[in-house]
Amino acid sequence: MSQDSEAYYNAQELAGLAGMPETRSGINRLAKRNNWPYRPHSGRGGGREHPESCLPKETRKILIKRQMDALDTDIANLKLKKKALKRCLKKLIHMD
């Protein structure tokens, strides 16, 4: 995965996941102790975001599973929209 497309996560997103401490402060201590790379978090509250590649394998597995589940949901929603558009198109064709 290239650096440009790699997912980054802040301490709040990581807290409590498999292989991670339960708290944001625990995540921040672990990141500092292990010299995880980071970039400034641009969202509200600031802080740091860490790339997926520096996280423990068990944590990455959870995050990838969540991404896959989100894609499955997106695909299901697109299929529903496609069906609705087909119905609208059929109605328009029969109006002529």
Task: Compose a concise summary of this entry.
With 96 residues, the protein is mainly alpha-helical. It has helices at 11-14, 24-33, 57-95; strands at 8-10, 39-40, 48-51.
Question: Strands, helices and their partners?
Answer:
Layout: E1 8-10, H1 11-14, H2 24-33, E2 39-40, E3 48-51, H3 57-95
Antiparallel strand pairs: 1-3, 2-3
Description:
By secondary structure, the protein is mainly alpha-helical. Helices cover 55% and strands 9% of the residues. Strands 1-3-2 form a three-stranded antiparallel sheet. The longest helix is centred in the C-terminal third of the chain and has 39 residues.
Looking at this structure, what is the CATH superfamily? Winged helix-like DNA-binding domain superfamily/Winged helix DNA-binding domain
Fraction of residues in helices?
Answer: 55-70%
Domain tally = 1
Numbering strands along the chain, what is their spatial order in the largest sheet?
1-3-2
Mean pLDDT: 91
Amino-to-carboxy terminus distance:
51 Å
What is the CATH topology descriptor? Arc Repressor Mutant, subunit A
Low-pLDDT runs of 5+ residues are none
Following the backbone from N to C, one meets helices and strands in this order, namely EHHEEH
The best one-word shape is elongated
Q: Structural class, from secondary structure content?
A: mainly alpha
Q: Using only CA atoms, what is the Rg?
A: 20 Å
Largest sheet: 3 strands, antiparallel
